[in-house]
Amino acid sequence: MAYTFLKAEGFTVGKSLVEDNMMPTALEIKKRAAEKGVVFLLPTDHQVVDSYEPIKGQDIVAKTIPIEFTNIGLVGLDIGVETVGHFAAALADARMVIWNGPMGVFEEPPFDQGTIGVAHAVADAADRGAVVIVGGGDSVAAITKAGVADRITHISTGGGATLEFLAGEELPGVAALTDK
After folding, report:
1. Cis peptide leading into 172, omega within 30 of 0?
2. Which string of DSSP letters, residue by residue, matches 3-32?
3. Which range (11-20, 44-53, 136-145) has the least confidence?
4. pLDDT tens, position by position, 140-175
5. What residues form DSSP beta bridges with 63?
C-alpha cells in the first residue's frame, strides 16, 4: 500500500506493487490527514532486489536503500531498519494500535525483518498499556512468527471484518448472535 502513496507523491518506486487507480485516493487521504493534523508515516527506506524470482537453493540478496534512491529496475519487498525505528518511535506513546497487514513479503526471509521489528514495537506498546488490535490472517501469522502473539490485546484472523467492525458497520455474524 505504501508504494501507491509514494508513487502518488512523485517518488520512483520501480517494479514495486502499486495500485495506479488508487493514487488520487492516496493523495486525498494524505490531504485529509494533513488538514486534521494527523501524522501520516510512510517508509523512508526499504529492502529492494533487482528481481523477485527465487532460484532454488540460493538465497535472495537484498539491499536496503532510502526510498528516494529507488530506480525503475528495483522492486521493494520490505521496509528498512530506519523505517522500523520511525514506526516504533511513533508507537512509543500510543494508547491504541490497530494493525492490519504486514510490512512486506514477510513469508520470505530476509523480507520478514521489517514486519518482525514492527511486531515487537506493537507488542511493546501493549506492554505499556496500549490496546492493541491485530486483524488479518497475514498479520496474525506475522505476530506469531515474531513470537509476540501472547502480548497482543485482541487478535482476529478476519482483517476486513475487524476493520468493518471498528468502522461501526454491522456484521451479519455478530448481528445473528444478538437476535432473540
Report:
1. no
2. HHHHHHTT---TTS---GGGHHHHHHHHHH
3. 44-53
4. 999 999 999 999 999 988 888 877 877 888 878 777
5. 48
The Cα-based distances of 91 to 41, 96, 166 in angstroms read: 11, 9, 20
Q: With beta carbons less than 8 A apart as the criterion, state whether 134 and 152 touch.
A: yes
Rounded CA gap, 64 and 134, in Å?
A: 27
* The 45-49 sheet, strands edge to edge: 63-66, 45-49, 75-79
The pLDDT value recorded for residue 34 is 97
Domains defined for the chain, CATH in brackets: 1-79 (3.40.50.1260), 81-180 (3.40.50.1260)
49 three-state secondary structure:
strand
Gyration radius of the chain's alpha carbons: 18
> What is the DSSP annotation of 66-92?
EGGG--TT-EEEEE-HHHHHHHHHHHT
Q: What is the dihedral of CA 113, 105, 100, 89, to 10 degrees?
A: 30
Name the nearest CA neighbour of 15 among 70, 64, 73.
Answer: 73
Q: 504486514: which residue's cell?
A: 102
